[in-house]
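Researcher: Here's the sequence for the chain we discussed earlier.
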Amino acid sequence: MNTKILDGIEVAKFLKKNINEQILSLKKRNLKPGLAAILIGSDPASQVYVKNKEKVFSKHNCLTKTFKFPDDSSEEEIIDFIKKLNNDDAFHGILVQLPLPKRFNTKKILHSVSAHKDVDGFHPFNLGLLFEGNPNFIPCTPNGILEILKYYNIKTTSKNIVIIGRSNIVGKPMFSLLSQNFEFGNATVTLCHSKTENISSYTKNADILIVAVGLPNMVDATMLKKGVHIIDVGINRVNDNSKKGYHLVGDVNFNSAMGIANSITPVPGGVGPLTITMLLHNTVKACELFSTRGSTG
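Model: Thanks. This is the structure I predict for it:
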């Protein structure tokens, strides 16, 4: 079997054409989508993500500003600053870059972001809308996965889909989306996690396998059904002797899946480009909603 590569960069380019049209339409009404990013501490991966986000937003003529806080900042200081951003009409979206330093209460900080500006889709109000089937802001990575499935016309109705990983960022919202009654839902979805015994017994029956656990090469050929479609969300650094000192791999052993899977997302270049693209999409949507609502916060 020739395994098809699901090119996230190609999908992102396709989506950005429509997003650009929306941005131009807003510009005609003197509106410019704005995103405020909050970066706490010095996590290298977070710094890279925020830098890439700034490049994408600037390229598409959107306002973006990163507010950096040292590790020793207080929780109250961060929340007070977020409250100010909630009332700043220049910013239609607020992103709190994860993970936060361990001493912070992540939920408390995320919940302080106004639901109207929650372009990550993590606020309880937005999660509630998502779970009832009427989403406002869909979390960026799950939304990007949906767009990959749509672009490559990978049908989900009546399929067995297995998700490994139960995070609030990917696993849980993905489970909800794929089980709902719409064209790229209507699947029978199984959510596996660290306490699932004999995960292979589930993955071997998967028509579509979505892996988001952050463990390099966790899934190999012995766990796969022939013809499976694989969405690999993991981005893991593996040390090597190269000039950089590392290379990136997914949660799925890419080479072992080739020839068995019908299709697979590469790492890098698969899901990653879609995450930032959907953040741009959500920020543009937040700007549009602001224009009809008339105020933020």
